[in-house]
Description:
The complex is a heterodimer of chains A (255) and B (298). Chain A is of the alpha/beta class and 255 residues long. Chain A folds into 2 domains: 4-91 and 159-251, P-loop containing nucleotide triphosphate hydrolases (Rossmann fold, 3-Layer(aba) Sandwich); 95-153, no CATH class. Helix content of chain A is 39%, strand content 24%. Chain A has helices spanning 44-52, 74-79, 97-104, 113-118, 120-140, 156-169, 186-201, 213-219, 237-241, 244-251, and strands at residues 4-15, 18-29, 33-37, 59-64, 67-68, 82-84, 174-178, 205-209, 222-227, 230-235. In chain A, the strands form 2 sheets. In chain A, strands 6-7-8-3-9-10 form a 6-stranded mixed beta sheet, sandwiched between helices. Chain A has a 4-stranded antiparallel beta sheet with strand order 2-1-4-5, with helices on one face. Chain B has helices at 2-28, 36-52, 57-79, 85-104, 106-109, 131-154, 157-174, 179-205, 215-228, 233-251, 261-282; strands at 115-116, 207-208. The chains are: A alpha/beta (255), B mainly alpha (298). The A-B interface holds A 52, 54, 73-76, 78-79, 83-86, 90, 92-95, 99, 102-104, 106, 108-113, 116-117, 120, 123, 126-127, 150, 152-153, 166-167, 169-170 and B 149, 152-153, 156-161, 163-164, 166-168, 170-179, 185, 189, 231, 292-296, 298.
Amino acid sequence: MADEILSVRQAKKAFGGLLAVAGCSLTVNRGTIVGLIGPNGAGKSTLFDLISGFVRADEGSIIFREKEIAGLPAYQIARLGLIRTFQIPRALMRMTVLENLMLGAGHQTGESISAAILRRRTVRIEEQKIEKKAEDILKFFDLLRMKDEHAGSLSGGQKKMLEMARALMADPMLLLLDEPFSGVNPTLAEKLIDRIKILKEEGLTIMIIEHSIPHIMALSDELYVLNKGAVLSQGRPEDVISDKKVLEAYLGAGL
Amino acid sequence: MLDYAITIMLTAGIYAIFALGLNLQWGYAGLLNFGHVAFMAIGAYTTILLSLNAVPLPLAILAGMILAGATGGLLGMATLKLREDYLAIVTIGFSEILRFLLLNWSWLTKGSFGLYGFPRPFQDLVAPQNYNILLAVLVLLVLAAVYALLEILNSSPWGRVLKSIRDDEMVSLSLGKNAFHYKVQAMILGSSIAALSGSLLAFYLQYINPMNFQPIETFYAWIMVIMGGSGNNRGTIVGAFLLWGFFSGTRFLEGYLSFGPSAASATRMVFIGAMLTALMLYRPQGLMGRKEELAIGR
Lengths: 255, 298
């Protein structure tokens, strides 16, 4: 495809004797939502770790925005516009919700120690802009009234929202969401689906790992099924979900 | 009485500066530095040895800070990519290696005889018996400046990144922050601040030997930081004054105890331990810390 933002080719990762990702290839096109499902232990989260640079692939190539990123440190990949969230939400507990978000903004002048001391006026103006942006995003996720609370006091579902909001502060081009609906109550989940659709309309490319089939069906343009570290099936969600191989992987052989 | 107050000002002020360097590393960046005293020693010895060789004092102090900062940065670079407790092991090991080096590098450091007769700042301005007043003012000014600098940094985006690393480094990385780089910076800056306190300590004591820099000094700084509330600069300063206030306030009590002086000073340490235990039980966030910031691993 012409307009691909991410392409993974034959990625492999072994942990000791366990082949977590065994030659996995996939493609993500700009402006789409790609779903990633599979039984527990299929290698979905490890694949996210490989793409985002938190774990180094043993073999294979990962191309993001026409650039080889396999082997780059995680923070450099993030700076290229590839931002991930985590399966178990990682809120910065001892910082407020607002501080969590403000951290997310990229290219901040005041993050350099010399600028933080010597260019305080520039930094202050920038901080005001970042704070405004953070408040807008918090409003989008219904978290604005919590902005001065410590993130440690949020519920599990709110932490998931916080993490997504913080990721958006970085203006990602590709957002990797690891089980964004786990621990989120059904009402909130419905809202979250709408929010994700809006983000896609605004041009964001998203890749989602999710166990809830209805949620993933509602969102994905393209669906990949991972099993034992390799792609078992791929294509339009409705085709993939009725694939016999997929049912077998989920429910066991012999159906 | 005035002498007494000035002595407390001097020691508590110098140790407050020392502990502020540690608070930057532990309270803000979450770095386990168990060898902080090494950087105080580097500051003291560098300043003295250079000024004895006719280097002007401001330059000698600055050289001590740079050397300590570079050493702290190198130790950080060597260990900060490993698990966090390795920094603790390496720093405490380094501080003892350095102390033995100072003890045995006799032609340079005079070993256990120590160094004295070195110049002190503004010593010609006042009569020797009044010098401590001047030095106390100088110490408080330096303390104020260090405090102001750290407050500016900690409320800046730079400080925000540091705090995010303390809370969860994975998050910092996932948002494009080079965590390693920031941790090394915290090591460099905290170590130079310790060196500055070391130069001041030398000016106050007028005599320095390697026994001034035993590991217990590092843990005094830890007590100050934890008592005041980790991650709170004002708390650290309060912690320093409380600890030294307690040390000097109980010194006269030793006379009333029926056992010998060494047992008496050990008794004081028992009291400090008991006080700290009580504080951690009833106010684990420290005197000025915020309770919400204790939400570790929730």
